[in-house]
Amino acid sequence: MAATQIASTTMSYRDAISKVLAEEIENDENVFLIGEDIGRYQGTFRVTQGMFDKFGPKRVIDTPITECGFTGIAIGAAMTGLRPVVEMMTMSFSILAMDQIINHAAKIHYMTGGQAKCPLVIRGPGGAAKQLSAQHTHCVEGWYAHAPGLKVVAPATPIDAYGMLRAAIRDDNPVIFTENPGLYTVMGEVPDDKDFMVPLGKANILVEGTDVSLIGYSRMTQVNLAAAEALAKEGISAEVVDVRSLSPLDMTTINASVAKTHRAVVVYEDWKFGGFGGEIASRIGEESFDDLDAPVVRCGGLNVPTPYARNLELECIPDVDDVIAAVRKLG
Amino acid sequence: MAKAKLEKTESPAMLEEFYREMLYIRRFEEKCNVAYRLGKIGGYMHTYVGMEATAVGIHHAIRPGHDYMITAYRDHPQPLLLGTDPVSVMCEIMGRSGGLSRGKGGSMHVYDIERGFYGGWGIVGGHIPLGGGLAFSSKYRGDDRVTICLLGDGAANQGVVFETMNMAGLWDLPIIFCIENNEFAMGTRLEYHAADTELYKRGEPFNIKSERIDGMDVIEFHKDMERIVNWVRKEQKPYWVEIMNYRFNGHGAADNDRELYRTKAEEAEAMKRDPIARLEKILLDRNIMTREKMEAIDEELSDKVDAIYEAADASPFPDASEVYDNVYTDIEPEKGH
After folding, report:
1. Which positions of A are annotated as active-site residues?
2. Contacts of residue B251, Cβ cutoff 8 Å, sequence gap at least 6
3. CA gap A96, A119 in Å, rounded
4. Residue B208 maps to which CATH number?
5. Residue among B196, B245, B239, B185 at smallest CA distance from B48
6. CA-wise closest residue to A74 among A106, A122, A112, A2
7. Contact call for A79 and B130, based on CB within 8 A
8. B337 in any annotated domain
9. B329 in contact with A at a CB cutoff of 8 Å?
10. What digits encode the pLDDT tens for the residues B23-61?
11. What is the per-residue pLDDT across B162-178, written as a single tens digit (0 to 9) for each?
């Protein structure tokens, strides 16, 4: 698109997020960051590095370790028109704030009959880092995507992280923006445009193919890209569909891909059972049945609390071999 | 000197206003109870009968429409006092299209954001951090609003309340936590739910000034609240107030088992503290109002409430097509079964 015409800079996924946070703080006096250790400590994953020194304690707020409380304070502030960006040290900790997110933020606009809005972003790393064990490794996006009133996005590339986070901050609805620890060092081109946005709710075809659609989001899109490359060597042409946004969900792009390839594998890091990949798979079944040459296959995380031992942890997360094995199931 | 100031706040005109407002709330809530029994109101509904002095005293201590207010589900009187169209309040309670939220909220979720009334919440204790957020916003913007955050004695045990108190104390948020201690967390008496029943003591560990005050004497209570609101506005610090009152009805309209947690004798004793009867006695003793005048006011208010109810009952139910409205500000949710 037009974005490729303008100047760009190569940077990491982490720096892309950092860049847009700083730009939006400068752009809108209502935007502030709030979370644990994001200021003086510079952020656990260093996404907010340098921001406290640059913007001060009014715009970069260190909180006590009380996820439910500070998320609720951010929601209350958002109801008056401020635009808080909440950092969850890991998305696993957002579970403590679920009452505030699902039972309050998601319902404010509806219960007030449109009187109040909740322009809030909750962002942070979700999914596996490296040996953080069972309590720090949750993929929470499916839980949130289940709740009407929330938008849920999971970008896989620096340019999408940059464009979608800005769109999320400027959105008048509560947005869950899930990152993945494994993505922070992924490099890519990011446009030099302080208004660049990627609209929420649009999937993206990263690689065109004709034989099978590999449908995923967040870090699994990177896995799908690698799998497509490996499959190409065997003469299998895989199309990589980066879902990017879980809610709203762009079924138009997904169905169009399936109409072309007639086969679909849905890949997600979250527990396979009851995870968001099941929603995508069932929707393809309902909406694209006549286009399918084989049942839709899900390739998800193992149904276990994530173990500590590195070999066991790796066993749990879908990798290139798992995706290829899933493709082979299609016959 | 102090005496002269007291006389001013107790002017006959003001006492008559207190009286009218408390009686208006009571008649409104009684009408709600009747409508509930008629099946015109569904779900959960919690009335304010017995606690009227608390709402009125607070209302006259704040700057209505300027200051922020948030509460749980005992939320009918606040918008009535703020000047919200009472028909739109009754419509909301009855789930009609003329309601403040066009029938999407109901009795527990009444909001008038324009007047600074932020509802209207159903999860006990869940709205407390939102109240903290309102006060945070005032501090962030440097305006001089005070946030009134009402909560019940039952809510005072929720973890998120302590989380919010800690941040309010830490960040000097201009919020007044008003515990409406009506002695019961639904069906559980204070002494069975609080390790220390003197709830006002809970402010101190968070560096929050606190006190316990009587919420049944509207004159004294109003003076107390005025003092506290002024202090918070000036000092820009939080306050934790334990307001002692009593609800005369059940927890909610669906609570038909009051004898499981309190005796009739106890209720009768509590009703001797009735804030309306108490003010009536003062008005009579001071020759401010005659019994006949009170009866005339009562008739006027009862007629008014009847008219509100009739107007609300004439409002249609929301159209089925509205079910998807306002899930998001800009898009529609996934549709269909």
Report:
1. 67, 136
2. B46, B184, B186, B187
3. 20
4. 3.40.50.970
5. B245
6. A122
7. yes
8. no
9. yes
10. 999 999 999 999 999 999 999 999 999 999 999 999 999
11. 999 999 999 999 999 99
Q: Is B169 on the interface with A (CB under 8 A)?
A: no
pLDDT digits (tens, 9 = 90+) for A293-305: 999 999 999 999 9
In chain A, what are the domains? 2-191 (3.40.50.970), 204-329 (3.40.50.920)
B318 lies in a domain?
A: no
B236 vs B143: CA distance, rounded Å:
10
Asked if A63 lies within 8 A of B167 by C-beta distance, the reply is yes
Q: Which residue range(s) make up the domain with B242? A: 13-311
Following DSSP, what letter does each residue of A19-44 receive, concatenated? Answer: HHHHHHHHH-TTEEEEETTSSTT--T
Partners of A112 on chain B (C-beta within 8 Å) are 100-101, 104-105, 109, 111, 113, 119-120, 326
Domains of chain B: total: 1
pLDDT tens-digit profile of B121-179?
999 999 999 999 999 999 999 999 999 999 999 999 999 999 999 999 999 999 999 99
- Angle at CA of residue B290, ends B287 and B293, nearest 5°: 140
Most A CBs within 10 Å, among B140, B165, B170, to test the A interface:
B140
Q: Is B131 on the interface with A (CB under 8 A)?
A: yes
User: Using the 8-state DSSP alphabet, how is residue A325 labeled?
Assistant: H
As for the ipTM of the complex, it is: 0.96
Residue B76 lies in a domain: yes
Determine, yes or no, domain membership for B124.
Answer: yes
Of A100, A112, A117, the CB nearest to B129: A100
Query: What is the per-residue pLDDT across A51-70, written as a single tens digit (0 to 9) for each?
Result: 999 999 999 999 999 999 99
Which residues, in sequence order, are CB contacts of A308 under 8 Å at separation 6+? A131, A133, A134
pLDDT at B335: 95
